[in-house]
Write a structure and sequence with these properties.
single chain, mainly alpha, about 0% strand
């Protein structure tokens, strides 16, 4: 779906999703559940999570104002959830954006 067809609410929902993703990135160490940050494996896990978040989210800003294919974005989140299962939580957000389709599009 071309960006000119995205409604303001769809763009806002994607922006909100990014906002919460950055909050989650800041709190990545809390995902380690019982692992010590003194353990090198913990840092490897954190790096893997951060990379998965970056890979899953890096197309979202461009998608907000360029071509948006929700199915493609969802597939990226699912693919990178192998490294960071928390990414599956964002599928519902993408589906909510998709559900807003058909509203009055944002004027370019």
């Amino acid at each position: 779906m071309p960006a000119a067809q995205l409604s303001r609410r769809q763009q806002e929902r994607l922006a909100q999703m990014l906002y919460y993703a950055f909050i989650r990135l800041r709190s990545l160490p809390t995902m380690l559940e019982g692992q010590s940050l003194d353990d090198p494996q913990s840092w490897k896990t954190l790096a893997t999570y951060a990379m998965a978040y970056g890979e899953a989210f890096h197309n979202v800003p461009l998608a907000m104002f360029g071509d948006l294919d929700i199915r493609f974005l969802k597939s990226r989140f699912v693919a990178h959830a192998r490294q960071c299962p928390n990414l599956l939580e964002y599928i519902a957000d993408l589906e909510a954006v998709e559900a807003l389709a058909g509203e009055e599009p944002t004027k370019a």
